[in-house]
Amino acid sequence: MRTASIDTPAPAKAAAQAASPAPSGAPLAGWASLGAAALLAGCGGGTADNGATVQARLLQGGPGYPDGTPAGSTTSSADHAAAGVQPRLLEGGAALTISATAAARFLAQAAMGASRADIAAVQSLGYAGWLDAQFAAPRTPARWDWLVSKGYNDIGLRNSEAGFDACAWRKLIAAPDTLRQRVTLALSEICVAAIDGLVGAGWRAFSAAAYLDLLEDQAFGNYRTLLGKISTSPAMGQYLTFRGNVKYNPATGALPDENYARELMQLFSIGLVQLNLDGTPALHNGAPQETYGQDDITGLARIFTGWDFDLAGQGASTPDFLRRPMLQIAKRHETGASTFLGHTVASGLNGAAALDAALDVIFAHPNVAPFISRQLIQKLVTSNPSPAYVARIASVFNDDGHGIKGNLQAVLRALLLDREARNVPAAATTYGKLREPMLRMLAWARAYSARSASDSWAIGNTSDAATRLGQSPLRSPSVFNFYRPGYVPPNSSMATAGLEAPEFQLANESSVVGYVNYMQRAVSKGIGDVQADYSSLLPLAGDAGALVGEINTVLAAGQLSAATLSLIAGAVNAMPAHSDAALHNRVYAALTLVLAAPEFIIQQ
Hints:
This protein is mainly alpha-helical.
């Protein structure tokens, strides 16, 4: 990278090699420390040094400082203050400080990304205080309302999905209730509906927006309530094909559609095998036990008959019916008894009452707490949580301390403040997760206040792995999400070590190169009129070490090793710095290389 232009493809190709799928012999954290030399091959910087990179991060309230300074260190409180580490008081008056890197690491788990302002808020409020503020933050205007305000409800757009990607990205990038947005995204990857499957009614953009708004409404609510809302959602009725479902026809032998009944159990609530509280399989004679069988699916499917759009006498000339819950058409509903999971919903109930009874049966199943808790941990914190961590969070799911099951706010608080979330053991090789491509892009957008001057947010569908991110909001290729929670990369060291690496299902040669090239363009040119603000970085651009160090803190929570920092700084130092354009190019290069670094891509 000895030219002033960032457009040369060599850095992107080299960075893509460094960011390629994990090689054999390199479990999660180990892989994050590999490829430093490859990262800058062709960039003219640095020498190879693949030393260990994982630093211990101390539990809030534990001995020492959360920036990694151990108890008993000679580093003084004045030294921490000079470094921007703010003191906090614990019970008993003991001092606690949260460093910028510790705050950024917390935000990598709890937010869509970290800016310097977000980091300062965590340092000022503390972890628990920041969560309190986020739980109390008001909802921002709905995606649906934005679509209407932009005229996407014009009848001429009925058969278009225009506007959806814009309203989805707008929230993810700019909404201040960043925890709510992160949880909404996680829920959309557990209780999956995708815009391509929202067929049979037109207005797909509005159906998809209504579904995301529903998830956002319930992100801090109760999981039982969420299941009820999903089960009467027009979008879910479309996607899993039970909208218009009718009872058994004895003349033709036609049975009710079983699609939603199956996925509700398998993916949204109890999973395939019986679980212990800690998420491990509950074995019988040494073998896993299935949670349900075909008879259970058939019995539950009877509940999901008679549901259809609530047109309210207005027809489908506007999308409004897609915002209303589905209603019951009594003559289509199966009123006989329905038996599943060892329980029977009595005959004679109307559709709404039968649905409530069925969901109560499912929600009472002991699998729900560990099955959902483990997936939330995987989405936010680490792909391979210890059984003890899962058990602690599942216990809160089962009882929030006030006798309530399914309190997502209590679950999220416990999950993000747990010692396994706040502390990474030194030399950990199994801890962490691959950042989803969407979250990598969003980390950049949030860190540097990317905004659309026209409020059009024309980022579009980023699903193409070869040229974009290989992932886009509410565009999963199937009900099984972009990746399976139990995915293990075949023929890999992670498989040998018995580790799950869900997001690696998205990683291949095409997606790695596509991501790096896409982010190189996004960083230097923006995405349409979505442009980042680099005013905090340009004053540092003449000092490569300071520039890369700042990006490392904000984007990577200080996870880049000294060797990688030196390599990137060396490449940036080789670039001219004699003009405003040259300084911008240095910023672009530093950002692109950090975004491609394995130590950023693996979140710890």
